[in-house]
Amino acid sequence: MFQELLKMILEYFFQIILLLHVILLPTYIYLTWNFNYWQKRGLRSALPLTILGSFPSILTRSRNLLYEIDVIYRRYKHRCRMVGIYFLRQPQIMVVDLRLAQEILDSNFSAFEMTAACSWMHLRNPNKLDKLALCSALWTTGEIWKCNRAVVSGALAQTRLKHSYDLCQASCRHLKDFLLQKCIGAKPQVVETVDLVKRFAAAALCISIWGVNAGTLTNTKKKQNEFLLMTERATKQMSSLRNYSLLSAVMPFFWELWPFRLISRAVDNYFVQFTNDALECHRELRNPSGLLDVLSLLYERRHTGHMSDEALTGYCMTMLLDGFEDICSALTYTLYYLARDTRVQAKLRNELLQTLRHEVCAEFSFETLSSLCYLDHCIFETLRLSPTVKYCRRICSRANVVQFSKSKSVQVDEGTLVCVPVYSFHHDPLIFCEPNSYIPERYENVAPKELMERRAFLPFGAGPRSCLGKDIAMLIMKSAIVAIITQFSIKTCAESQHSNNSGVDSFLLNLNEKLKLEFKKI
Ligand code: HEM
């Protein structure tokens, strides 16, 4: 059999070689013909590897993309303000200078208004699909984006945060009870922390948005909580978008061939029903949350004819989905860093318990929570070391000229993607000394706000497209840490095995990974 095959190959050797050339040569030419794109424009570029572009790990999958971005950042940061890169065959730009990052994200916003995420949505003819997802600022552009931002900013305004805090306290009590049930006896108990955090984040967001208990920390008898299940399903669907973006880098016409839904119909239907049930519950119980939640606020608007039923669900659902993974990632990492560093944990507990002694009741008031500096610094240090958004990407919306060195500039064409390497800024030793260590005290010398203004520190992005949920996210994370650290000591254990390196696929922390930590009641 083998000999016959060999004989046939030898017989048709030249024909086979010819056939391979006919098939492979055009593919090779298609994938590499524009690898001199930046050279022609006079911009230095990170040398692309044949076919693989500047980031071989996209195909070899040997490490996370962010490490390759970091290598390029370190190589070019002293030589110019930006460098040409190739995402597979697609020419893109990487910013390696803080002031240029400021220009792209903020002062020259009108030319870089679109994020990569909303340009994908824009390309997919969104009017037919994903009506609910279109209520999110994250996925929209132009006038719809402005309207979405205005609605969500109003619902999550600073003045309403106190209400969210009051609602969130119920989830914190449930979190404590949940942990107390696990930590019976004097021995430390191993708790799967990713699961714990997901349950808490879903509960806290649900009560702040819909004003009802999601049951993720209370109804634990059921095998799977449906609210959590649907939330996870939707966030997984949203991250699968990355695979489509890869394909579109090789074949830009791909979007037209294969439009797909960002969030499945089943998830949409679940949240429509959930919102109706929550409204029913508000009516029956004469508004259990006393009009403090986002749904009640938006319902008022619907009542005066300013919002459709569809938009009502869309805003609530996307507020949950836009922040769920980020909160889970940041909170899991903070607990992990605190568990690893007993000195920081003890110092934080000390600050919390000392301040709590001066409080009138057993819980912090909203005002006191806002004044806990060391707690803020611990969370910011997590977001520096493990930012949930590791690079901000903008699409050039109109051709414009960008100065990339003292005397040189380049024309950036419409549609070009520009990457701001957030992770690399956060790990640059010239900006943060000992960049790989967890040192919350570093913000005692330079306040996080000042670093954010310099665009050296971008945990929540910057400019008109910065994070809309930053205040509520900080509030939810701080409430959870207070609830845990004042009642439990946490430690890493043999089962914790958790590398600080993000997995090959993970955009955020790979939340499918498990993180086991030891909890002990104090
Ligand atoms: C720890 C938690 C969070 C972190 C670290 C975080 C981080 C970020 C970052 C870095 C961006 C900017 C992305 C870019 O410039 O490309 C962003 C945008 C956004 N975030 Fe968050 N986020 C968090 C929580 C939330 C929450 C809870 C919500 C929902 C209420 C939310 C809603 C949004 C929206 C809607 C945008 C897009 C804004 C726009 O394009 O106009 N985020 N977030």
Report on the architecture of this protein.
It is a single chain. With 522 residues, the protein is an alpha+beta fold. It has one domain: Cytochrome p450 (Orthogonal Bundle), CATH 1.10.630.10. Helices cover 54% and strands 9% of the residues. It is built from 23 helices and ten strands. The protein has helices at residues 2-11, 13-32, 37-40, 57-60, 65-76, 98-107, 116-123, 142-155, 158-182, 193-210, 226-239, 241-250, 254-257, 265-284, 294-303, 309-340, 342-357, 366-370, 373-385, 422-426, 442-445, 448-453, 470-485; strands at residues 82-87, 90-95, 114-115, 189-192, 392-395, 400-403, 409-412, 417-420, 488-492, 516-521. Strands 1-2-8-5-3 form a five-stranded mixed beta sheet. It has a three-stranded antiparallel beta sheet with strand order 4-10-9. A two-stranded antiparallel ribbon has the order 6-7. Helix 10 (193-210) runs antiparallel to helix 16 (309-340). The longest helix is centred in the middle third of the chain and has 32 residues, at 309-340. The chain is globular. It starts with a helix and ends with a strand. The model is unreliable at 504-508 (pLDDT under 50). The structure holds protoporphyrin IX containing FE. Protoporphyrin IX containing FE is lined by residues 115, 136-138, 149, 156, 319, 322-323, 326-327, 330, 383, 388-389, 392, 459-461, 465-469, 472-473. It is found in: Endoplasmic reticulum membrane; Microsome membrane. Keywords: Endoplasmic reticulum, Heme, Iron, Membrane, Metal-binding, Microsome, Monooxygenase, Oxidoreductase, Transmembrane, Transmembrane helix. It comes from Ceratitis capitata.
